[in-house]
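Regression test attached.
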Amino acid sequence: MQPGKGYWEKILSEARGCLMVEGKTQKIPPQGFDLKSFFPYQTRVFYKHVIQAVSRVYEARYDMKPNEWRTLAILGSGNPSTPAEIVELSSIDKVSVSRAVTNLSKRGWILVRANRSDARSKVLTLSKAGKAVYHDLVPRMLEAEVELLSVLTDAEVSELKRLMEKLHSVADKPA
Amino acid sequence: MQPGKGYWEKILSEARGCLMVEGKTQKIPPQGFDLKSFFPYQTRVFYKHVIQAVSRVYEARYDMKPNEWRTLAILGSGNPSTPAEIVELSSIDKVSVSRAVTNLSKRGWILVRANRSDARSKVLTLSKAGKAVYHDLVPRMLEAEVELLSVLTDAEVSELKRLMEKLHSVADKPA
DNA sequence: CATAATTAGTTTCCAATGAAACTATGTCAA
DNA sequence: TTGACATAGTTTCATTGGAAACTAATTATG
């Protein structure tokens, strides 16, 4: 339960000089904070790199927005879905899903029909055209993924994924 | 130079059923694409988690925006800088830096003086108030980082950082 | 049943961001 | 010099995305 003490001891030791307890202003910082070695900063740079590498594909080829691609991807890989299911599966918020669905529908890529079991809802499926786009795009996206990851070994990719997932397991502080 | 063949062989094999070569439309996909196991998707989820964990701190405490925090962080840890240097160090674009500087200046946290050696430019430093904010915020940000990373061991943190950095080393395709 | 509380999805509004155009200054070459 | 081009920073504009309010339909409760 106490993993990696050393790490943050090191980090905090850098900050120690400028720690201030609530009211008490103390000391000048030991020139200590370095954005470049700050984990969230590194994550942001990393993220931008990854996203940019793959978003080019659907942007250039179909002028799609990220959320449209994600929505299409979910509809293509599964059975008919409701917007709510897409929210669930994509971690996009419902407002954005609504917009993506509207746009994809305008383009004729998805079909919207009523949901018999709940009139508030809708059932979405890919149209023929939508499937064609999906089939064209998926392998290209996977290629882009492969290209992106090609500097890493298999083992490294697995490890990276594992560590990213592990980070989520932080329980929200009970207090 | 050919690292981790197995990984993408696996990935591509899933797509194989629906690969289409330029003009030729082929096959139905093997129900194959799963957004949740798509690396860029995982990265986005990961990123949101990380950013959210730390941005709370400066948002709640000083109602600062991400780019304002980053700008402050750079000014605080170093010597006087020009906006261009901040762009360089923060990987924020110059438009955003300009805005962050304007806002921080309005709040009285940074001082702007002319740059003797180039009248187009400016020299920025933290004011007394700005330093106080910096000194208050830095240890809290580091704490948030520690908190965030506390589910990982030292070794895991190092490895994660290493892998994220390694991914950048992709050379932009020559052709 | 009737009505209160929820839920699905949309619309409206606003904050954040980046691209392109713009202003002012600096640099280089004839 | 003087003009052509480059550079620092700002402004304008369009796009994106999320929060909150809204509508319509459903479920729960008395």
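Expected vs. actual: identical. Residues 39-62 of chain A form the longest helix (24 residues).
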